[in-house]
């Protein structure tokens, strides 16, 4: 099998890249190890930055988001039993869309298949070869057979556990990493949200986040120690803990049946460079952020917009400048988001250290009283036009 761009991974990054290349008249093949139902049901992010929403609309993928998603003009911070609203529209003139990653992936998959795109589910990439030549290859298994995909370029959009990052030669690649001593227990609940905007709560017992998927479905998270077994958190315990951590006078948490429960470890990781020879990394394959601040999905989509632009230039007039700049350009945004996610995480999660606690409260009070401090949060949360 031969194509121009071999893409590994049918997550949001791989699928959007394939779609943008198709719009530019460039053929690609997507290899995805899982089946379609699994990929479409995987519960993950829910906040789409202002600029990413525009990118989705511009590439013909905004219709359902604009009809069924919810525009949010701010978030609420809770600490010390009180509440502070960060008004994005007022502070930076931008907003975000509450639109789940599962829905973006469903729309993208349907669109690629309707456009005759090749998305091969059940195809597991096992090796990337010849990245320093003009014709790299992706070895993969499909329906029990060993296959080879020959291409001009390989885009590894295969997430944190994929083979892309590990295929960059040793000595070329450098990894920067930070681990955190806590995880998120995330639940999905069949109950209307108890708030109109997302609530980020700092509490001595740990961080809590109230998000949503629709007018009927809430998405909630609790800080828990690493290694927590979700089975130790029956429904009743989840609701009691959320209610306690998010409590402010006059507010009540609506409760309902939980429909999913999962643990997300927290990690910051950046791989530099994000390309070598004819191999390009995008999304979680190249970098991970802790989820506080909702940057993972947005970064992945920014990466592939840049990469698609570089490939479009290469195939339309032969210019390789944008492809050569891809890694440096992507990393500028990545490091901004890494800092923001790290900052939001350390601002809101409990470490158990009394000094940290005092610093957090001081900074939260500063946010509540200073327009300049809140503007930084608003700009980063809604997404900087140019990092
Ligand atoms: P992925 O979505 O991981 O897609 C990679 C794809 O590659 C997968 O479909 C995988 O099956 C496939 N693949 C892997 N290896 C191979 C192979 N060898 N061959 C073929 N295919 C392969 N971000 C937030 O902003 N908020 C959140 O609440 C949030 N929660 C998260 C919870 C979890 C459990 C995880 C893992 C991530 C979460 N994220 C969250 C991050 C966000 O979802 C990711 O940043 C986003 O999915 C990145 O998209 P991607 O396309 O780069 O990678
Ligand atoms: C969601 C996830 C986040 O990490 C976040 O900061 C806000 C919302 C969500 O899944 O809805």
UniProtKB/TrEMBL annotation:
Domain FAD-binding: 2-340
Pfam families the UniProt entry points to: FAD_binding_3
Keyword set, alphabetical order: FAD, Flavoprotein
Stored NCBIfam families: PRK08243.1
Entry protein name: 4-hydroxybenzoate 3-monooxygenase
Organism: Streptomonospora nanhaiensis
């Amino acid at each position: 099998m031969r194509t121009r761009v071999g893409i590994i991974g049918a997550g949001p990054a791989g699928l959007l890249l394939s779609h943008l290349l198709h719009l530019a008249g460039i053929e690609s093949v997507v290899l995805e190890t899982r089946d379609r139902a699994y990929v479409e049901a995987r519960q993950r992010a829910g906040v789409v930055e202002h600029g990413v929403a525009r990118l989705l609309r511009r590439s013909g993928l905004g219709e359902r988001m604009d009809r069924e998603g919810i525009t949010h003009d701010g978030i609420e911070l809770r600490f010390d039993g009180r509440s502070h609203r960060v008004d994005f529209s007022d502070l930076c003139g931008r907003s975000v869309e509450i639109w789940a990653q599962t829905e973006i992936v469903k729309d993208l998959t349907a669109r690629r298949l309707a456009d005759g795109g090749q998305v091969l589910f059940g195809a597991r990439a096992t090796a990337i070869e010849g990245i320093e030549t003009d014709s790299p290859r992706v070895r993969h298994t499909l329906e029990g057979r060993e296959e080879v995909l020959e291409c001009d370029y390989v885009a590894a959009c295969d997430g944190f556990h994929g083979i892309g990052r590990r295929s960059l030669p040793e000595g070329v690649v450098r990894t920067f990493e930070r681990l955190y001593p806590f995880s998120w227990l995330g639940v999905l609940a069949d109950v209307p949200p108890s708030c109109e905007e997302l609530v980020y709560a700092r509490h001595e017992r740990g961080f809590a986040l109230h998000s949503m998927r629709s007018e009927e479905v809430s998405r909630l998270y609790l800080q828990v120690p690493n290694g927590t077994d979700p089975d130790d958190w029956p429904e009743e315990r989840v609701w009691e803990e959320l209610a306690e951590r998010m409590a402010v006078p006059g507010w009540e948490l609506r409760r309902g049946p939980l429909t999913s429960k999962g643990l997300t470890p927290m990690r910051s990781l950046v791989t530099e460079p994000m390309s070598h020879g004819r191999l390009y990394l995008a999304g979680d394959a190249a970098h991970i952020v802790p989820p506080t601040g909702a940057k993972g999905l947005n970064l992945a989509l920014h990466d592939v917009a840049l990469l698609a632009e570089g490939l479009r230039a290469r195939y339309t007039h032969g210019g390789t400048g944008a492809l050569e700049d891809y890694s440096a350009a992507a990393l500028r945004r990545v490091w901004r988001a890494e800092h923001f996610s790290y900052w939001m995480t350390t601002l809101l999660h409990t470490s158990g250290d009394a000094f940290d606690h005092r610093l957090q409260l001081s900074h939260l009070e500063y946010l509540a009283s200073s327009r300049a401090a809140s503007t930084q949060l608003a700009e980063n949360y809604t997404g900087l036009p140019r990092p």
